[in-house]
Amino acid sequence: MSETSPKLRAELEGIPTYKPGKPAAAGGPVAYKLSSNENPYPPLPGVMEAVTSAASSFNRYPDMACTSLMEELSERFAVPVSHLATGTGSVGVAQQLLQATSGPGDEVIYAWRSFEAYPIITRISGATAVQVPLTPGDVHDLDAMAEAITERTRLIFVCNPNNPTGTVVRRAELKRFLDRVPRDVLVVIDEAYREFIRDPEVPDGVEFYRDRPNVCVLRTFSKAYGLAGLRIGFAIAHEPVAAALRKTAVPFGVSQVAQDAAIASLRAEDELIGRVGSLVCERNRVMEALRAQGWKVPESQANFVWLRLGERTTAFAQACEQAGVVVRPFLGEGVRVTVGEAEANDIFLKVTEAFYKEL
Ligand SMILES: Cc1ncc(COP(=O)(O)O)c(C=O)c1O
Prior knowledge:
It is built from twelve helices and twelve strands. It is an alpha/beta fold and 359 residues long. Helix 4 (117-125) links the parallel strand 3 and strand 4 (128-133). 43% of the residues are buried. Pyridoxal-5'-phosphate (PLP) is lined by residues 37, 89-91, 115, 159, 163, 190, 192, 220, 222, 228, 233.
């Protein structure tokens, strides 16, 4: 047998594999998973019914055009169906956007630290990642991002609110930034956590999409709508971007179960948005408690909080795990903690209280 292995693309060398949030330890005393920004509420009965019913025909391929869901979204956002594209989670759509716009020699700009999939999917495309550090307050530095644009720039991610810091960019600053971006560079406003925003100065990216053909908005059913495991997200973008997304989609990538669950979730929105309201209350309670304990926490408009722990990151994550909550450490930088059930948040706050005293 020859030792030669199949030739792989050189770009893949050194690209880390996406690291999922650690699951809660099975069989432990009480273990809560606060490591993946998931929605802690179980599926609503009506959504379960839609899923069960769709599952009865999974010997068939799904509706590849996601017709019913597209109609529903088109009405809701007042956008033409031709400006919508679905994918296997919004991260799937983000990867398609890179396939559609960027390759070797091109540049992709995003803030750092931000969503950990951006560097991975950028490097897979063969394009060069241009990471622009967050400001000392952990916010996107939009001026520096605008200054980083070159003739090679093809795509810019603006993660609003930003994962993992929870911080936001507001209307006036985003508008000023978009005015500086050349019209042939695609700006992707990633709004995975849109529904958790309560700051009225944070714009809905769709406002900017309306009269800017180079703006694409990414949304997901994974977070507020609680469908993370079904993998469905979507983009709102003008032609030809939306058409390019249809070309780059994995055929039949979005299952019928996911499509029907998304429709049932949109119809159960009052109840789901009520749950989001409870999570927002919990987020605010957690932030206030952390500040009362003495922590400096950036204002989060998402379903997680960020503690910049530097060298103490690993020790803190271990202390959390021992206490029964699993969080998401970013080595040497900090810890992102999802806002979960009140009991889980209480355990986390006990750990932060004890830990702060030792700092
Ligand atoms: C900023 C951001 N965008 C996109 C995603 C992807 O979500 P999904 O692929 O489940 O829609 C996430 C998930 O954590 C995220 O944090």
